[in-house]
Write a structure and sequence with these properties.
By secondary structure, the chain is of the alpha+beta class. The protein is built from two helices and six strands. Strand 2 and strand 3 form a beta hairpin.
């Protein structure tokens, strides 16, 4: 899985390549927002509604990379295509992304449910991460 950090641009898509043996290889990319919510990290893909969590930025990226690759592979196995995979995230995440594109780096509301929040203080602005995976 390759990645690019902190570019507030969409870098998503699905590209299909046919190998010399006739097998298809799928290159799948997505824009991911990384949230640090007081020591709990969350990764949310924009173009594909996929989510992961972890206790650090490195862990959430690794968790996302692993689960994203498995999700792509499972979709290929179950549906023999990736059409069902393309399902955008909820609009709240697109609004966070658009704020970042506009240069607004203010904090955002916490992602945890209200009953899990120790205090009502906002989390730092999310980071943008571009993730890609291959599946055959």
């Amino acid at each position: 899985m390759s990645t690019h950090d902190n570019e507030a641009t969409f870098q998503a898509g699905i590209r299909v390549e046919r190998r010399s043996d006739g097998a298809l290889v799928y290159h799948v990319g997505t824009t991911v927002l990384l949230y640090d919510d007081g020591g709990r990290w969350f990764a949310q893909s924009l173009e594909i509604d996929h989510f992961a969590d972890g206790s650090s930025e490195e862990e959430v990226k690794a968790n996302f990379a692993n689960s994203f690759k498995r999700t792509v592979q499972e979709h290929l196995h179950a549906y023999e295509s990736l059409v069902e995979l393309v399902n955008p995230a909820p609009s709240r995440f697109f609004l966070d992304f658009l704020r970042l594109q506009a240069g607004d780096n203010r904090s955002v509301p916490a992602l945890r449910p209200a009953n899990e929040q120790a205090e009502e203080k906002p989390a730092p602005a999310p980071k943008v991460w571009h993730a890609q995976t291959l599946a055959a």
